[in-house]
Design goal:
Blueprint lengths: L1 E6 L6 H9 L4 E6 L5 H9 L9 E4 L2 E4 L3 H9 L17 H23 L4 H24 L11 H16 L6 H11 L4 H6 L25
Parallel strand pairs: 1-2
Antiparallel strand pairs: 1-3, 3-4
Helix pairs in contact: 1-6, 4-5, 4-6, 6-7
The chain binds glutathione (GSH).
Length: 224
Amino acid sequence: MATLGYWDIRGLAEPIRLLLSYLKVPYTDKLYQFDNSEWVEQDKQNFDHSFPNLPYYIDGDIKIVQSSAIPIYIIKKNNRYDLIGQNIDGTFNQREIKVIEMVGVVNDIRTQIIRLCFNPEFKKLRENYFATNISGLLNKVVEFLGQKEFLLDTLTYADFIFYDTIILLSYLYPQSQCKALTDYAKRFENIDGIKQYVETPHSYDKLFFHKTYASWSGPNSDQF
Ligand SMILES: N[C@@H](CCC(=O)N[C@@H](CS)C(=O)NCC(=O)O)C(=O)O
């Protein structure tokens, strides 16, 4: 069985966990705790790869790092080329570029959120930050989504990242949750595979960032 290794948080692993659940790939959700040295002093030292990091994905003899590379491997291995905009036989389609663009746009929103949540001045900045750094691009994405079911009509990997971003925003900025976003999130949560995943409680459900480094790591963090 494959293993996805990451901290016991949503972080960079959550879209990958959602993808694995959607594709019904059985996997071990290997969770490292912040307060012990299992990753840093043991597994990282023995990880047979030039660039050991979290998240990692181990599938038999194959070891992959980087949150951008892992989903591509999983999607291709499962012949779901459509999730990255390729033709059904894996050949190039201009849509592939659209998916990469959309992943970039959603990650631009995430980058802004991360800058805030890791800022030691979080408490001071939080109130105005949504209006100055997030809402402009978020509104454009909502407008782009329009009446479509998913960001690019049919489901693509960009939706897995966007869904997790919406959940994060729902805790950080409840005012961000317009009807279009809540409807979209509900639609995503109703997809077979995803439904079972979101209905299962996980230790990290409300933990988005590394507690040691982030000023705000989730709705239960004492910083909020
Ligand atoms: N570019 C990498 C960044 C990975 C990264 O920064 N991982 C952080 C958690 S978000 C970590 O703690 N890595 C473990 C380490 O550095 O040993 C990716 O996208 O996977």
